[in-house]
């Protein structure tokens, strides 16, 4: 299964996502802010990243853009997972380089479907 990295400042959201992913055989690591996430994703080279948008400091759109523009992380797919549910937010996230976009609360079946389509 895949090594998945979660970037989200909410311990509750990380716990929920981690439970879903680990139950389905994936290994999971996380960071609670975008700056630490970028640093650890660059070092760890996970198979996929789940990225929140609304975080203190650098937001998830900025982090997604930074990861997809950097040669060492450009090939790591990112799915944005956020409460921002406007169509313009989704379009903007995809324009930053995200492969997909899911709104919270996360539906387990939808998340697994999107993961299998990308991995």
Please provide a written account of the structure:
The structure is a single chain. By secondary structure, the chain is an alpha/beta fold. It has one domain: 3-Layer(aba) Sandwich (Rossmann fold). It contains 5 helices and 5 strands, in the order βαβαβαβαβα. The protein has helices at 11-23, 34-44, 60-69, 87-95, 108-118, and strands spanning 3-7, 27-31, 48-51, 78-82, 100-103. α3 (60-69) links the parallel β3 and β4. α2 (34-44) runs parallel beside α3. The longest helix is centred in the first third of the chain and has 13 residues, at 11-23. The N and C termini lie close together (9 Å).
Report a brief summary of the structure.
The chain is an alpha/beta fold and 119 residues long. The chain has helices at 11-23, 34-44, 60-69, 87-95, 108-118; strands spanning 3-7, 27-31, 48-51, 78-82, 100-103. The chain has a single domain (3-118), classed as Response regulator (Rossmann fold), CATH 3.40.50.2300.
């Amino acid at each position: 299964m895949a090594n998945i990295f979660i970037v989200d400042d909410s311990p509750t959201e990380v716990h929920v996502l981690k439970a879903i992913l680990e139950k389905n055989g994936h290994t999971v690591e996380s960071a609670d802010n975008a700056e630490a996430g970028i640093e650890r994703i660059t070092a760890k080279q996970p198979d996929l990243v789940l990225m929140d948008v609304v975080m203190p400091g650098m937001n998830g759109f900025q982090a997604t853009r930074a990861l997809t523009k950097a040669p060492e992380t450009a090939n790591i797919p990112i799915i944005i997972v956020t409460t921002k549910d406007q169509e313009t937010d989704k379009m903007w996230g995809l324009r930053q380089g995200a492969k997909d976009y899911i709104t919270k609360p996360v539906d387990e079946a939808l998340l697994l479907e999107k993961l299998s389509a990308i991995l």
